[in-house]
Amino acid sequence: MATELVSSYAMRCISFQLAFEGRIFICKTRVMTLYFDTKVEFLDSDAVSTIGNWHLSEPLFAVASYSQERGGSITIFTDSGEPQRDVTYPVHPTSQVSALAWHPEKVLLATGWENGDIHVWFAGHREFASVHGPHKAPIVLLDFSEQGGRMVTADAMGLLTGWRCDGQYQFLTMFSHDLRDVLLHITFRRTIESEVREEMVNLAKAAVAGDDAALDTLTNWRPRTAARSMTHAGVKDNHCFYVGTQNGLMYYINQGGTCTEVLKNNTVPIMQMLWHPKKDAVICLMEDMTIALYLVESTGILTELDRVKLSGNLSGKGGAISWAGNSLAIITGDLSVRIWDIEKSDNYLLKMDLPTTAISVLASSISLDVNSSSTNVFNTESSDKSSSTMNSRKLQKFIHPTNELFTCLAYSTSNQTLCAGTNQGNLYTWKRRVGVFDIPEDSWQLTNISTVRGAVKQCIWGFNELAKPCMLINCISNVYVLKEQPLLSFHTRDLCAVQRNAKSIYLEHSIGKHALIQADFPIIALALNQLNLIISNGRAISAYSIEKVQKVEDYRVDTYTDDSITADSNDKDPNLNVKLIQTFNAECLGLNIHNQNIFCLTSNEVMIYSIGGVVLNKILANDNEGKIIGMDLTGVYLSVFTMNGFIKAYDVSRHDPKLMFPGKSGYDLFDDFGEVILVKCNTAGTHLAVVIANRSFVPKPILYCWNFERNHSMEYNLINNMNESTNKSSMPVNVYWDTDEARLLTIEVKSMQHSQEQKQTFKTGRTSSSSNSIESEVMVLFFSDKGKLNVLETRPLALGEQLINLCVPNVVTLDISIVKERPLQDFVDLNKCDPNVRKMVLNFSLHIAEGNMDLAYRCIRSIQSQTIWTNLAKMCVQTSRLDVAKVCMGHLGKARSVRALRQAMEDDDLEEEAKLAVLATELGMHDKAVELYKKCERYDLLNKLLQARGKIDEAILIAETEDRVHLKNTYFHKAQQLKEKGDIKAALEYFEKSQNPVQNITQMLLDNPLAMKRYMQNSTDPKMLKWWGQYIESSGDMDAALAVYQKAEDWFSQVKILCYLGKISKADAIARQSGDRAACYHLARHYENVGKFQEAIMFYTRAQTFSNAIRICKENDFQDELWTVASSSRSRDKAIAAAYFEECGSFKRAVELYHRAGMLHKALEMAFESEQPEVLEIIASELTVESDAELVNRCADFFTSIEQHQKAVYLLAKTMHLKRSLQICMEKGVPITEELAEMLTPNKNDLDETSRSEILTHLGELLQQQGDYHTATKKFTQAGDKVRAMKCLLKSGSTEKIIFFANMSRQREVYIMAANYLQALNWQEDEHILKHIITFYSKGQAYDSLANFYAICAQIEIDEYHNYEKALKAMHEAANCLRKLGHSQHALNNLEKTIGDVKKILDIQNAMKNGDNQTVISGCRNMLIKPETPPIRQADILATLVRALAYTKQWVEAGRALKELAMKDNAWNTIGLVDKALVQKITKECNLDFDIIWNSGRRRVNIDNSETEQDKEEEIEEELR
User: Fold this and answer.
1) Complete edge-to-edge strand list for the sheet that includes strand 444-451
2) What is the 3-state secondary structure (H, E, C) of 1447-1496?
3) Which of 1091, 731, 577 is nearest to 10 (CA)?
4) Which helix (H) or strand (E) holds 1137?
């Protein structure tokens, strides 16, 4: 029989249990779960268990037992505690199993017996097979290597044997070693890749938003499709191991079976050895309770790294160690568990007390169960006082046990839970918490204390069929399997069922009738409809019929409060009749019911039973889809999903289920798909809500909604759509569709917020951070016609609360064991809600969520609900519909709010966000109003809002940072608030910062003279002290007032009192020293009254009351003093003094004062009249552009009249009278300097373009006349006349500036002018000038000039260098230029003829080079026949002919050609047309006189030159005549 045990939270945050009246109840703070302690029943009722063990990855365990009747035996059980079927278990009458081990990967069990036999069992085999070996003594040790490739056995005589298991499950002996000592343990060596193994085994919890523990904390789901098959992926098996003996020796057996002694001189035996999970090291527990850490070398040699001696009540035989993550858990024979953090060299004891909050919840749970037969499931009231007292006593007794010690340890890496059993049958469970803690003990929390019958000898973690952790508890007399399961609940519109404990279900009808159903077995599955209740324990199903209750349709929904009771009890008969119909055997992992059909999920398929247990049908999946692992039923639509990720939906409204669409693979539907977690169909049979895990088998924080009719998928990301920080791990836990509305669904989300909290530690006094908090919330969503999931509303869940249904208008949750129906926000105040109104309100809510204001308004026009109109008004804030909001406010009857909103809408200076903020304020949406004010940066209105809400401190912060204009006003309101509270001291502090502290503080303290005096004595504020002095002065105490004035440094008041007291000298000293104007004025008045005019004038001057000083001077004819005072007085006073001096005939002083007073016309007139040119120059130097034009012209005329033209020009230029200035320069020949030229240059904004160009042109002409060509060019350029600018620049002869200006001007005429100028230079020797000439002619499109330039180049190449090849290139360029012109065809034709002749000459020259002299001779003679046309020179042809004839030794012809050459070119011998040696040769051969031939050219040149000179002289004489 299964015993009900304590629950632990699904998140395993806090859990504890209490045994009471033979039953165990559970209390939790998150989702309630139960631990079922199923007692394992042996085949022999009197059998006693000895040892047991779980398979590493399969839901199987084996337990060895011994009975007096049958002897020793071994039994294999499933995770449900039932023996494995179709297996014949070995039995020995005198011997029992002394050692057993599971193969780490295969389903293979090896057992060692006391008689030395070894029996093994293979999955699928009925019989145990015997393995023949050398052992004759009891087998004491048996173990497998990491992957099972090597099995090692050891007997009591010290014989150690190694085995190898082949593919046919045959065990072969590999080695044997007789160590002749009692062997205590065998420890196989692990590879470092075991880290990979650990990750693959725990693949599902590898990461959730980067958090290793978030998966364990947020959900108990584990992947079922891949984790088991990847246990040792990527890990190589290691056959090496250590074996320890009773005498303290340690042997190392390597891969080949060689035995080596690796640890000597150790007299204390090692009782337990554990391999380090992260590195090559081992931890050893000695018999004397010493723990040693050894480093393992590749050869197996052990090197000691650390050693710790523990104190305990037992020897090492009673102690135990276990890895708990990367730390070591240790028990030492008492009721404590010590954790040794090897990496940090820290150790601590685990806490043994349950959280106080858990204890208080536990007490209420006990109270609830005591009265369970009559307690309404919706009631949260506690039981009576007597039962509470009794429960409290039992609670105290349980929580503080005595004479108890730990006997065993076990750690589960999959859920990070450490379990320790005691000699009194208690199981303590600690959970490793997520985060960083100040005290390392805080990282572990005691979450559960469970009780079994008998002392606990072994506790071993394993896995059930759903890959969830469970424990095997061996208590010698009893063996238990502890499985964890969430508390069951089921809700329909009229009925609600809640699991009260392991074997009881509390059922309640909406009208108040209820019943408590007691089952004969622990309940692990539950289904409910209006007429039937179905429960199961996984092996059997019980069906109950429920009394049909006539419901009164009053459509009453009471106003919701958390503590409200949502259903009233029936006064006549509160009991609901429930009858058991049938119990039948059936495998069951999940249950659903529709009408009279029961849908049962098995390990492979879905079975459909009748209420009586008859099989009606079954739903199977093919091999490609894999076995069915999950199902859900909503209305008449059944949804299932398979091991291979296929999703299917069936219509079960008829006898045979109808497949609604072909099975769809999750790999085709979703990205990054690994496994289906949950699938639910809506009531219309059109959409599936799906929750999946990714490829790493981590639940994705995304809700998918698949419209299988249109094959369209929608999704909602739980992280991206939250208004929280991204430092959060979120996970969907459960999903429910609404029972009527097909568009509506709700999802429960659990999140882990990774926060940094600062707290003070007692020991160090420093602040440090702690980490995580878990949050739960319910999100109500709906899908729209646009194919998008929208959020309708979100609400948080309380501690221990979970979602169980969505039944509009309520979201139904289970809080511990109490069902709460909380209405949606739009249904809160609807006292009567029939289906039509419910539909209207729901449509309103959906339209509001989508932002469709008009449709939402149409839905609820006829409904009078404050909540609905309020919600619509709030939605107007989001959609900026102020017009609709005004209507909503009218329906709400808020006239003041309507008025405020209308005024805001009519205020054109108010931003749109500020108007919305006014609406938000009237609706109480203060946070939204704050956000809107910040958005539009109206911090003044935000400050006002915060002040109105009483949040003065926040208002001060806003004023100090953003709204400093109202800072002092905010300080004033803060002071007023403190004043009303009576906090005078703090009020004084803020009044001092306000706008008028003197008035506010004195008004507050006026009724308390002593406090005022005390405050004034400590005050240093001059204004405050001045007020205090005036207050004392009004009382007649002049001396005391004088002292206060001195402290306040109020010089005027001091002088006033001193004058009143007659202490004039002291008052005079204070006035002189301080320089205070008021004090000086008061003293001056006093001196004037007593007739001391000189002193009065001085102090009036110091007080800057010059009119009084001038008045005294005029009255007493103090001219010198008047001049002194007027010189430092204001303009008006200067003018008064100047008029006085004018009357007195002192014109020089009058002119100067008029000038200083700014009365320039008056000053000039008087200066002209009094003939003061030096003053005129000073006045002129101060004239500016803004000065009066008439005044400027008068000054210029004056300078011109005295022949100071340059000053006149500068004055006119400075005052922007440019035309007259230029006229004077032209008429009087005033030289224009560079500075004056800049002054005469008007800015572009000063004059219109025409006037400015005219002035600049005139200025350029003047500069050109004066020879300043560069400045003239600049001015012509500024005037826009670049042609004149270039002409002027050409006169300067600056080649570089001409080139630069031409490039910058980009005008055709300028380019041509620049090229013409450059052509006149020595361009033959400067390549850059040549390039610029060509470039400028090209840019100026002067192709005729460019062609002429190329022709000149060709002529020069021929005349000077005789280079016909370069001349030809130049002619080609000239031809190209002529072609571009289009109107020079005649010149082009002539040029092409010349080009042809040049080519012929080049052919002759090439023939000459090649030695073809005859061709040269004929070509030359043909060319000589033609008349000579430039640039071709016949002299060059004759010279070539002479050389060719000489080379052919035609001397006569050569001589004749040489004579003709001498006659043709006078300078033939000087330019080297024919070599002198060749001429000598020819003259010799022809008998000619060399000197005559050679010098004939020179004589002709001399004759020609003399004739030319004579001709020139004759021309000059004719010109003179």
Assistant:
1) 406-412, 417-422, 426-432, 444-451
2) HCCCHHHHHHHHHHHHHHCCCCCCCCCCCHHHHHHHHHHCCCCHHHHHHH
3) 731
4) helix 1131-1144
Long-range residue pairs from 602-609, CB within 8 A, at least 24 positions apart, any chain: 603/465, 603/627, 604/628, 606/631, 606/638, 606/640, 608/652, 608/657, 609/541, 609/584
Gap between the Cα atoms of 1219 and 647, Å rounded: 97
Residue 690 to residue 704: CA distance in whole angstroms: 5
Phi-psi region of 512 (alpha: psi -120 to 50; beta: other; left: phi over 0): left
What residues pair up with 72 in beta bridges, in sequence order? 66, 92
In SS3 terms, 854-868 reads as HHHHHHCCCCCCHHH
Grade residue 579 by pLDDT with cuts at 50, 70 and 90.
Answer: very high
Cite the DSSP H helix spans in 484-592: none
Consecutive H or E run containing 407:
strand 406-412
pLDDT at 843 over 70: yes
729: which 2 tokens?
A: 């791990």
Residues 1446-1468 have pLDDT tens digits of 788 788 777 777 777 777 766 66
Contact residues for 153 (Cβ-Cβ < 8 A; gap 6+): 99, 112, 118, 133, 135, 139, 141, 142, 160, 161, 163
- The DSSP element (H or E) to which 1061 belongs, if any, is helix 1051-1061
d(CA 498, CA 502): 11
- Helix, strand, coil proportions of the chain in percent (round to 5)? 40, 25, 35
User: Under DSSP, is residue 179 helix (H, G, I), strand (E, B) or coil?
Assistant: coil
Angle at 985 (CA atoms; ends 983, 991), nearest 5 degrees: 95
Instruction: Supply the DSSP string of 450-513, one letter for each residue.
Output: EE-SS---EEEEEE-TTS-EEEEEE-SS-EEEEEEEEPPEEE-SSEEEEEEETTEEEEEETTS-
pLDDT of residue 601: 93
- Helix or strand (DSSP H, E) at 885: helix 882-892
Q: Measure the N-to-C terminal CA separation of the chain; round to a whole number of Å.
A: 159
Q: Are strands 525-528 and 337-341 parallel, antiparallel or unpaired?
A: unpaired
Please tell me the distance from the alpha carbon of residue 375 to that of residue 819, in angstroms, as a whole number.
Answer: 12
Confidence of residue 1347 (pLDDT cuts 50, 70, 90): confident
Q: What string of H, E and C letters represents the secondary structure of 286-321?
A: ECCCEEEEEEECCCCCEEEEEEEECCCCCCCCCCEE
Q: ∠312-316-322 over CA atoms, to 5°?
A: 95
| 1381 Rama sector, left if φ>0, alpha if ψ -120 to 50, beta otherwise | alpha
Cβ neighbours of residue 288 closer than 8 Å, sequence gap 6 or more: 268, 309, 315, 316
1212 phi/psi in degrees, rounded to 5? -65, -35
* Cα–Cα distance, 1444 to 1451 (Å, whole number): 10
DSSP-derived pairing of the beta strands 444-451 and 458-463: unpaired
The residue with tokens 């369970």 is: 372
Q: What is the spatial distance between Cα 284 and Cα 274, in angstroms, rounded to a whole number? A: 7
**Segments of 205-268 assigned E as strands:** 241-245, 250-253, 259-263
Backbone CA torsion sign across 1025, 1027, 1032, 1036: positive
Cα separation, 1023 vs 1472, in Å, equals: 112
Query: DSSP string of 594-621?
Result: ETTEEEEE-SS-EEEEETTS-EEEEE--
Assess whether pLDDT exceeds 70 at residue 2.
Answer: no
* Contact between residue 1377 and residue 1346 where contact means Cβ atoms under 8 Å apart: yes
Amino acid in the structure at residue 1039: D
Neighbouring C-beta atoms of residue 46, cutoff 10 Å:
11
The more confident residue out of 362 and 47 is 47
Instruction: Check if the beta carbon of residue 886 is closer than 8 Å to that of residue 876.
Output: no
Number of Cβ within a 10 Å radius of residue 989: 14
| H-helix segments, 86-210 | 194-201
What angle is formed at CA 1172 by the lines to CA 1168 and CA 1175, rounded to 5 degrees?
105
Q: Which residues partner with 348 through β-bridges?
A: 339
pTM of the model: 0.54
